[in-house]
Specification:
The complex is a heterodimer of chains A (167) and B (77). Chain A is α/β, with parallel strands linked by helices and 167 residues long. Helices cover 41% and strands 17% of the residues of chain A. Chain B has 77 residues and is mainly alpha-helical. Classes of the chains: A alpha/beta (167), B mainly alpha (77).
Chain lengths: 167, 77
């Protein structure tokens, strides 16, 4: 192989390697990062044997805030059946996060990913994005955006389907 | 091509290709858009300025149907 060919091959390899690193968002079936190792601000609830919905949101994201009344109702309805909702805020500033949580008083757990370590590991494609984990911690659904009742119904149906599965 | 020119050319190509393929260099991630979502970033945050800009735009562009107005370009609307 000539010197030119070798050099061009090396360039092509570098390009392909770089392109493959660029897209690393978590897909269904892949392991979800451990929440307790992610330096989240707040107290993590027990997730043992429960269906968990991890929602990434922010105070500067209007659809995220619009989803909160639905999530409140969802948590109240399905918590006795083994459902836990964990809303992870990606706000870097504490003040807007604390103000919103104080004003809204959600019935579910809210945590803050102040260093954005967890969200950078998960790489959600949009805000908000939620990740539904079954009782064994396996990622079963990734849902991006929140467009009102239609999205809420779809999400609720998926959660109930997983709750109905035998433990 | 001489080897002395080939190596710098190859390095340049690698750098350029890396820049094109790496999403982190070219794209603000969804969770990093707090500043972009701020009210002060909205171009229409001042209603008076928006109204003035709109008036100037449709007055000047009326001949080409600016803002859907079919005018003659006299600037009188």
């Amino acid at each position: 192989m000539s010197y030119l060919n070798k050099t061009l091959s090396a360039c092509l390899l570098a390009f392909v390697a770089n392109a493959s690193v660029a897209s690393a968002e978590i897909k269904v079936g892949a392991p979800f990062p451990e929440l307790q190792n992610s330096s989240l601000e707040g107290t993590l609830p027990s997730r043992e044997g429960r269906v968990v919905l991890v929602d990434f949101w922010a105070t500067w994201c209007s659809p995220c805030k619009a989803s909160f009344p639905f999530y409140n109702a969802l948590q109240t309805e399905l918590a006795p059946r083994g459902f836990t909702l964990i809303a992870v805020s990606v706000d870097k500033k504490a003040a807007p996060y604390e103000d919103f949580v104080k004003r809204f008083t959600p019935t579910f757990t809210t945590l803050r990913d102040a260093d954005q370590k967890l969200v950078a590991a998960v790489q959600p494609p949009a805000m908000p994005t939620c990740y539904l984990l079954d009782r064994h911690g396996v990622l079963r659904l990734v849902h991006s955006g929140f467009h009102g009742d239609a999205d809420g119904k779809k999400l609720r149906d998926e959660i109930i389907k997983i709750l109905d599965e035998k433990p | 091509m001489k080897a002395s020119l080939l190596i710098p050319s190859a390095l340049l190509l690698i750098c350029a290709a890396s820049g094109c393929s790496s999403a982190k260099l070219t794209r603000v991630q969804p969770w990093e858009r707090a500043t972009l979502a701020d009210y002060t970033m909205r171009p229409d945050r001042d209603p008076l300025h928006t109204a003035m800009s709109e008036h100037i735009f449709f007055s000047r562009e009326a001949s080409s149907g600016g803002r859907g107005v079919g005018g003659s370009g006299c600037g009188c609307n």
